[in-house]
């Protein structure tokens, strides 16, 4: 199933086809991005200042002509590199980034529990976003709910970023075939991350990128040889439309026919005051 | 190949050449599971498991096989193994076992698959068939799109499990009896495990899901359902064969001396957390019949509250549907609204909430310090806008569990209650 959100690839692709240069398609490196935000995120009503960047979850697959092979061990290298590059890009936009490390998680059972639960809920939503309707993000249709809010609260940040990545390398045979056919080989990297806000538990923004092709397609060895280069490129592309921390964007008009989930905001609580007041109020009846 | 001599199984070594990647991948996956925090660490339980492993696994000559058992936090009663000696047992399976003999049975079964090199031979055979099919596919369709479906990418364990043929499973069942016998465990334990699985509520839930899909033309896209459609029949056939090999009179239904009670509690909580209340209720009800206690009643309350307007006879696992070729997505709230819009929905909601309230109250009668019962009652009264009752229960909950993981959320609700009660007071004045 292909992702359906590479709207920003549409124009360059159309241009290539219209100009009749399809035969040299193999030489074209396609880079596309996708982004969608709620209006509250755009207008800064719900723009986080601090973001916890969770460890990425990734897959690395070598695509052959006849079969595909999963490379599991090498994903650790890519995930570490992605964390470095993505945190730098988000940091450059002015957000305070808190990179959550595996060591930190493993040393803290409470954090492990909260993370596993939030990750699981995010995956539930992520599958819908990527496979079906990224545009629904602006209608606030995706929520992690309480697990997302609890995790953000525990990490003491305004929002949590959940990165996901799928890298597919073209095998030698697949590359050869792509040269013969004059088409793009299947090597590509997809990366997306959703931002879940501490005050709503909703996916307030979703950013993603695809980096595909090149002269002979991406191979596993080329990806692993220079992981930082590839991860930098994909992180740069994915954050291209992410606004700077203090820059408000115009709200988007929402289709009246589309159902928008209600915005429910949870405010910070003065615990002592609540308990003091309640003591009297509950006893009154 | 396993051979039996003097009641001892011996396994000939196998050169994994050509399929060495299967062994290598297994090692990499172990690292990945650790990295993803999927391995469940519990010192007490691991000690029991390790002791059983030492007793029951066969001796093998292959250097690439090192037997070790890892636990995975997952409520489904499943386990799987990898070619290099790793055996993964779901906590949900452990929760269903009655004693160490049954644990020995499930470990022996998987250990046989490993020692008999079933993963390697199955992979070789599958690849040979796959390559032939791929050549035909290439000739007719061209290069395949190997892009992994997003929903499949996260179903890590589903992709890992090697589906052995029924014949391979039957051989493993027979070998299990021999391995149990040589380790001094009663062979009836293996039969009892299959009995448990055949009667398992999750299997019924899976059947229900298939029925649901067939009834309204909805295709179930979320691969949470981990059972194959023919699994019940395959299991029954294995049971019939295995039962014939166990001495008559040994098959007794023992009372349930639970292996580790807290694993059962964790499994029930996991079903609730994963929004699978109907399965949770089935597991809880079976245990309440045997040995009711405050935890079980409060968990029953939680499960019924979660069930809400659903009847328990509906598909509980997926929010993504494909109806007549169109993809439909429903958020959890929309799913709730969908059920509430039906004729039965509101009545079902009222019924489930009443069952939940009764269960919580029973729980508190048994143990007045059962915090989760106070939290559950607080939630129900909060939704009914009975803020005074809700406030009292929430405060009791926080007094009993001051470091509760959801403290922030409860305090937020208390703030809302404070605001509502203050407004009411002002209005009254």
Question: What does it look like?
Answer:
The complex is a heterodimer of chains A (285) and B (429). Chain A has 285 residues and is α/β, with parallel strands linked by helices. Chain A has one domain (7-283). Chain A has 10 helices and 8 strands. In chain A, strands 1, 2, 3, 4, 5, 6, 7 and 8 form an 8-stranded mixed sheet that branches. Chain A is elongated and about 85 Å long. Residues 4-29 of chain A have low confidence and may be disordered. Chain B has 429 residues and is an alpha+beta fold. Chain B folds into 2 domains: 2-245, no CATH class; 294-428, Alpha Horseshoe (Serine Threonine Protein Phosphatase 5, Tetratricopeptide repeat). Chain B has helices at 20-35, 43-56, 91-96, 100-115, 118-140, 150-153, 156-160, 166-183, 188-198, 201-216, 231-245, 261-273, 277-290, 294-307, 332-340, 345-366, 371-383, 387-400, 407-428; strands spanning 2-5, 8-11, 39-40, 68-72, 79-81, 86-90, 218-220, 320-323, 326-329. A 4-stranded mixed sheet of chain B has the order 3-4-6-5. A 3-stranded antiparallel sheet of chain B has the order 7-8-9. In chain B, helix 14 (294-307) runs parallel beside helix 17. The termini of chain B are far apart.
What's the helix count of chain A?
10
**Helix coverage percent of residues of chain B?**
55-70%
pLDDT < 50 stretches of chain A: 4-29
Number of helices of chain B: 19
The general outline of chain A is elongated
What is the mean pLDDT of chain B?
A: 80
The shape of chain B, in one word, is elongated
Q: In which order are the strands of the major sheet of chain B placed? A: 3-4-6-5
Number of distinct beta strands of chain B? 9
Q: Name the biggest interface.
A: A-B, 68 and 56 residues
As a percent range, the share of strand residues of chain B is 5-15%
Give the overall average pLDDT of chain A.
82
Radius of gyration of chain B: 25 Å
Largest sheet of chain B: 4 strands, mixed
Q: What is the H/E order of chain B?
A: EEHEHEEEHHHHHHHHEHHHHEEHHHHH
User: What distance lies between the first and last C-alpha atoms of chain B, to the nearest angstrom?
Assistant: 86 Å
Tell me the span between the first and last alpha carbons of chain A. 60 Å
Which sequence of SSEs, written as H and E, runs from N to C of chain A?
A: HEHEEEHEHHHEHEEHHH
User: Measured on Cα atoms, how large is the radius of gyration of chain A?
Assistant: 21 Å
The portion of residues forming beta strands of chain A comes to: 15-25%
């Amino acid at each position: 199933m292909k992702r359906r959100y590479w709207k920003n690839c549409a124009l360059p692709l159309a241009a290539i086809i219209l100009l009749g240069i399809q035969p040299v398609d193999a030489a074209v490196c396609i880079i596309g991005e996708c982004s969608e935000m709620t209006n509250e995120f755009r207008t800064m009503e719900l723009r986080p200042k601090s973001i916890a960047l969770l460890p990425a979850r990734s897959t690395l697959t070598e695509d052959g002509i006849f079969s595909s092979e999963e490379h599991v061990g090498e994903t650790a290298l890519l995930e570490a590199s992605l964390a470095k590059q993505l945190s730098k890009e988000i940091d450059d936009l002015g957000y305070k980034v808190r990179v959550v490390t595996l060591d930190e998680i493993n040393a803290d059972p409470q954090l492990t529990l909260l993370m596993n639960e939030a990750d699981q809920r995010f995956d539930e939503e992520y599958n819908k976003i990527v496979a079906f309707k990224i545009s629904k993000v602006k209608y606030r249709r995706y929520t992690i709910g309480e697990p997302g809010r609890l995790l953000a609260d525990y990490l003491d940040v305004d929002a949590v970023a959940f990165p996901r990545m799928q890298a597919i390398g073209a095998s030698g045979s697949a590359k050869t075939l792509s040269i013969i056919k004059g088409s793009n080989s299947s090597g590509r990297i997809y990366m997306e991350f959703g931002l879940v806000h501490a005050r709503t538990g909703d996916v307030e923004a979703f950013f993603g990128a695809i980096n595909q092709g090149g002269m002979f397609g991406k191979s596993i060895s080329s990806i692993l040889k220079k992981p930082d280069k590839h991860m930098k490129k994909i992180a740069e592309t994915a954050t291209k439309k992410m606004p700077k921390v203090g820059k408000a964007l115009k709200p988007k008009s929402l289709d009246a026919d589309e159902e928008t989930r209600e915005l429910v905001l949870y405010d910070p609580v003065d615990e002592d005051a609540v308990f003091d007041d309640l003591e009297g109020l509950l006893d009154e009846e | 190949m396993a051979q039996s001599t003097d009641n001892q199984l011996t396994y000939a070594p196998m050169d994994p050449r050509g399929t060495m990647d299967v062994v290598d991948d297994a090692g990499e996956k172990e690292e990945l599971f650790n990295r993803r925090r999927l391995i469940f660490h519990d010192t007490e339980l691991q000690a029991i498991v390790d002791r059983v492993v030492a007793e029951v696994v066969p001796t093998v000559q292959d250097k690439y096989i090192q037997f070790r058992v890892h636990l995975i936090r997952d409520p489904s009663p499943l386990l799987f193994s990898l070619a290099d000696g790793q055996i993964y047992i779901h906590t949900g399976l452990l929760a269903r076992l009655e004693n160490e003999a049954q644990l020995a049975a499930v470990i022996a079964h998987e250990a046989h698959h490993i020692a008999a090199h079933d993963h390697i031979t199955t992979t070789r055979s599958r690849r040979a068939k796959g390559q032939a099919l791929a050549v035909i596919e290439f000739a007719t369709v061209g290069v395949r799109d190997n892009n992994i479906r997003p929903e499949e990418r996260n179903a890590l364990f589903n992709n890992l499990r090697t589906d052995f043929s029924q014949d391979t499973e039957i051989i493993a069942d027979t070998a299990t009896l021999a391995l149990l016998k040589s380790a001094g465990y009663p062979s009836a334990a293996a039969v009892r495990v299959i009995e448990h699985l055949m009667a398992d509520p999750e299997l019924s839930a899976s059947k229900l899901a298939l029925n649901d899909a067939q009834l309204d033309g909805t295709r179930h896209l979320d691969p949470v359902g981990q059972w194959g459609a023919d699994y019940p029949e395959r299991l029954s056939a294995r049971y019939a064969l295995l039962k014939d090999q166990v001495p008559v009179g040994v098959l007794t239904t023992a009372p349930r001396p639970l292996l580790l009670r807290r694993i059962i509690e964790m499994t029930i909580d996991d079903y609730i957390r994963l929004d699978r209340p109907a399965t949770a209720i089935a597991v809880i009800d079976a245990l309440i019949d045997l040995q009711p206690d405050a935890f079980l009643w409060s968990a029953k309350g939680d499960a019924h509250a979660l069930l809400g307007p659903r009847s328990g006879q509906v598909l509980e696992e997926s929010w993504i549907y494909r109806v007549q070729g169109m993809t439909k997505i429903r958020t959890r709230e929309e799913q709730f609204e969908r059920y509430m819009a039906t004729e039965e929905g509101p009545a079902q909601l009222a019924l489930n909430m009443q069952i939940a309230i009764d269960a919580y109250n029973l729980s508190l009668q048994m143990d007045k310090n059962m915090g989760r019962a106070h939290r559950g009652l607080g939630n129900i009264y909060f939704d009914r806008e009975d803020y005074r009752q809700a406030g009292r229960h929430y405060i009791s909950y926080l007094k009993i569990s001051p470091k509760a993981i959801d403290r922030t959320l409860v305090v937020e609700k208390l703030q809302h209650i404070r605001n509502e009660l203050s407004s009411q007071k002002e209005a009254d004045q």
